Amino acid sequence: MGWLRKNLFSNWYNSLLTIFGLYLLYILIPPLVNWIFLDANFVGSTRDDCTNEGACWIFIQQNIKLIFYGLYPTEELWRINFVYLILLISGVYLLFPNLKYKGWVGAFLLIIFPIICVVLLSGGFGLESVETRLWGGLFLTLVIAGVGIVLSLPIGVMLALGRRSKLPVVSLLCTIFIEIWRGVPLITVLFMASVMFPMFLPEDTYMDKLVRVIIAITLFESAYMAEVVRGGLQALPRGQYDAGKSLGMGYWRMHLLIIMPQALKLVIPGIANTFLALVKDTPLILVVGLLELIGMIDMAKTNPKWLGFAAEGYVFAGFVFWI
User: Fold this and answer.
1) Is 90 exceeded by the pLDDT of residue 203?
2) Radius of gyration over alpha carbons of the chain, in Å?
3) Is the pTM above the cut of 0.90?
């Protein structure tokens, strides 16, 4: 009772806000629970089995392969599942404290694992080649977001250091790069990468559309990452730099051992925000003809057999992105 009085009913207007909030929850949550769970349809194979007034999760069930794997050949899905398994085992291992060799596992995920993914999924190791136009769904979302995250962080760190450099040319070039990329929307960058980027390549040179998109997203996100890291660098007191110099350290050694570990720790929330924004920005690749999670749901809902179930698809997509 004391906690309720202090936090929810401390005065008359807080009491009114509490009552109003409870009323909103009362009118919103029961219908939502009914639609998602109680009145929903979970078993069946066609739209005729969706007889209740709630959500028709049969739509998701019947299109789950399309949503998760895109148009990737069914007989080759073991490759994607194998990649998921490696990622799951490595991620779970890193979550447990006090385990040995966590640094090596992290290095594996950042350096070796992406190479394995590209070679395995595209058709290396003597496997059948699978064109990237068949990649899609959640699988493509994770590929683009994962590669963008791995590449944008080191580029962003170098840009942040370059912008703070005492060399005027380096500082100016890094500043121009950062401000240009931060000044345009991602959808424009993707469109330009898909349509105009090939014009700057030599004749008879072909670059896969997925590669163009990854390059565009990496450059775009690295500009934002640079500003996040620069904030951490500016937050450190001058004494840290002086201490490094007093120990006889050069520029790179001082930044590697003293400055960057502290700066990156300060901006972990900003780095996480940038990575989350990258994951949620992946549906924009729809403008260049690549169908990730949202794109595949759009394709599934236009199937004449499943017209009218867009709400279920978008609710499911929102839940997957939230996870």
Assistant:
1) no
2) 25
3) no
